[in-house]
Amino acid sequence: LFPIAAYADKIDGSWCAAAARIDINGPKISLGGKPEFEGQYARHEFRYTVPAGEEHAGDQIYLRLRGEEDMTSFTIKDDNAVHPIDWKRCKETS
């Protein structure tokens, strides 16, 4: 089995978009290899507040799984999902 197969039906795993990377492991998330922090986890969704010291600190971010290899994130502003970003599962190299 490939490592991605274990995460095929849930949002857990490593996600890449442009020069960004996030890693989700249950209720924990890491932004670009920085220390983990907790968010609100559901099998196909994740929501977190951008931590202090990060660009856009305090913003609420919502991530939604769209398929085995695709996810979209949104910033929540005034109860609206704005600024969508498309993510793909990172291709791990050995």
Fold and architecture overview:
- With 94 residues, the chain is mainly beta.
- Helix content is 0%, strand content 52%.
- The chain contains no helices and 9 strands.
- The chain has strands at 13-17, 20-25, 28-31, 37-38, 40-42, 45-49, 60-65, 70-77, 80-89.
- 14% of the residues are buried.
Characteristic key phrases:
9-stranded antiparallel beta sheet, 94 residues, 9 strands
**Helix/strand/pairing category:** mainly beta
Oligomer: single chain
In percent, how much strand structure appears in the residues? over 45%
**N→C terminal distance:** 15 Å
Average per-residue pLDDT, rounded, comes to 89
* Secondary-structure element pattern, one letter each: EEEEEEEEE
Number of helical stretches of at least 4 residues: 0
Number of strands: 9
Identify the overall geometry. globular
Main sheet characteristics: 9 strands, antiparallel
Uncertain parts: 1-6
What is the gyration radius calculated from CA atoms? Answer: 13 Å
Give the strand order, joined by hyphens, for the main sheet. Answer: 4-3-2-1-9-8-7-6-5
Percent of residues in helices: under 10%
